[in-house]
Protein: DNA 3'-5' helicase
Organism: Croceivirga radicis
Amino acid sequence: MKTLKTRTDLSALNDQQRKAVLSEANRLLVLAGAGSGKTKTLLHKINYLVTDKLVDANTILAVTFTKNAANEMLDRMILAADQTRYYKEFLQTQGITFKDKYRERVRFLNKFPWLKKLTIKTIHSLCYQIIKTDGVHVFDNQFKIVADQKIGNEFHGNTATETVKEIIEKVAIELCEEKAFILKLKRFLLDYYVDHIPDNKTSEEFRPEGKHFTSLNGDKVRSKSEQFIADWLFRNSIEYTYEPEVKVDKKVFHPDFFIPQGNVYLEHISNLSYPSFWKEVKMKIAGCTCIKTYDDATHNSAVFNSVLDRVIKGRISEDLSSATVLNYDEEFSPFRKELKRFYREVNEVRNKIENSEKDLQQIMDEAAASKYERVRVFYELAIPIITAFQDYCTNKSYMDFDGLLIKTIELLENNPKVRERYQNSYSHILVDEFQDVNNLQVKLLNLLTTKETQLFCVGDDWQSIYGFRGSEISYIVNFKEHFANSELVTLNLNYRSTDPIVCASTEAIKKNEFQIHKDIKAVKRGGQKINIFYEENEGQEISFIWETVEKHIQDGINPEDILVLYRRSAMASELKKTLDASGHKIQFKTIHGAKGLEAKVVFILGLHSNKGGFPDPWLQDKIYQVIKPSNYDLLIEEERRLFYVALTRAKDYLYLISKKGAVSEFIKDIPKEFTLLETNAIDYGTNRVFLCKKCETKIEEHYKFCPECGKSIEQNHSQNIKWKQKKNVEQQIHNLPINFERNDEQILKSRQKFKRAYEPWTEEEETLLKNCYEDFSITELSEMFGRSKGGIQSRINLWSTNLD
Ligand SMILES: Nc1ncnc2c1ncn2[C@@H]1O[C@H](COP(=O)(O)OP(=O)(O)OP(=O)(O)O)[C@@H](O)[C@H]1O
């Protein structure tokens, strides 16, 4: 590319990056893969605008998605401006706090006044400023921000002391003062989060055998009808015993219920009940009153209610109209986890409704028409909570993040003078992470720009991962249709990761249909292949990661340059505890939270196909489909983009953690040429499979030679032999008796991990260890013997010292 003389130093950019910086287009999309210098290009563009184009820094607005990204942008601008290199050294100082960074950032911004004039903000922060200044037309401008979590000082302390989650529970508690509501909520939690009644079966069909239905007072009963009776008794505050034992003539009977207040037994008759004639006769002889209800009546709950009113209430002397008031804490104390999940789902629904085109009434009508009881009841509970939440926030002058956008749009749409003022304020608008914009954000950008405004967007459609929060990947994929007369520059060199990581991630994402094809090349050639670990037994993954982390730290990698990523926080909790206890301060992040980050060593947890693994297309839940129908393939595509983001955080070493026999489809998508098989064998079905060390062909265990290159399995696959040897030793250890009876808490805990923790070594065990310890690593021995690594090592040390 012909180089144009510029005052800004653009020598650190490649041709495409420079083309983007120099472009005069009023609408430009810089489309790139991960690690290709999007942010770097955007920052050079700002420098170029101010230095070469003499644009007033006051009129430049750079929009980021997170506060951290805005701070990082500012830091990178300061680093470029600071010739003394002091700021670089400061940022590299170990242990500096967030506050230290903030103070130093402000000090440096004061040193470079033009930097201070720039507006580098999150989109929410920009809206906040607009509403604070001009929002009196649309809201109480003394409002406070309310967020899902406690937030820092982004809004100058103007934040509510309570979080969204706290308010949701608060208004729900108020609604629970009405008995019908609290009982409906409890019934919902019990049916769908405790008993897990599936959508596609009628309740009656659901596991008719065994006691699988939880009644409102927590008993497990055998059928939906019995649950109905138990619930009816509970609602009416009538005490009962479920399946009491009755002895008549040395025979024991178990009628369904005993109601002491009326001294009656109740037997519910269904086509699954055992013949009751004989039982009845015997009970009558014994003088017990036994009333019956029939399954036919249960098909209509109103009918069944009146049956119970008639047959039971008449026999009870006490006045039931003064039935007890139910207490929220008492009712839900055994179900806090389920309640938390329910509120989380209500909040997801609330967020989605705010971002959707539909209003509450429409959602309510569509939910009421759902053919699934679970969906109908969920909305019967959620809509009153969401309405009460909105009223509460208006009353307190609270605004949430989506509210900020909605009110700003309303303000700019309805007040042309205010809109023009903002349009004139910004001649250049630069947007980072453009792939994650949603309808509201694009609406806002359109309101802030005129034909003359330069809109410079950078993004990567492969990294669009906020569809679940309403972002629309189509804005980046169809940029030209949304922004007339736009131009496109593509960046296709990855500076971050090694060749196998770039190739593997590019191959993985290519499985998506909805994407823009890009030919990404790694600048760093060579590098270690991706390491896949297949866990065979519980706890192995922790040992593997622990040892690998230690190995990298010994090799000189800074623990802060090691990143553990996961789809859901629960996947990492055990590992985090273990590593924290070992004193290693490595970074743990959800993949969503790792956006924009990079690290030398990355582990991705939970890549298995079982429930709670990865991919996890949770939005296919029918509850969310009421707001916006989404098809399964598109949800998997978003999961795959999330996988791509995770893979591309790694600079040099990448470890994927999976489970033997339940390998995530995403791992199978990575071509074998980019992966390395370390500790365990892959289970592709019933046979154990190894990769030939010479040509990496899959070879089943029973093969004598590699069918591809002819390499002998016996010679080449010591792993295979070793595996058999290991199984043999494990079997022998398994057959040894456990001789130790102590049950201290610490020992029990340790036993969950190591079967023989604290048990004295027996002669047989010691002989076994002596025979095989040279063939295995300490970790393998620890797994085989069910003892800690320290325990094994000290045993071995003992003999070596004795030998000396
Ligand atoms: N032209 C270049 N020459 C050398 N290094 C570069 C160049 N462009 C970018 N880099 C380096 O590549 C790395 C990634 O850059 P940057 O963070 O700007 O990428 P990105 O595209 O925004 O990444 P992502 O979208 O994956 O978060 C950084 O370490 C950056 O310094």
Confidence is low (pLDDT under 50) at residues 678-687.
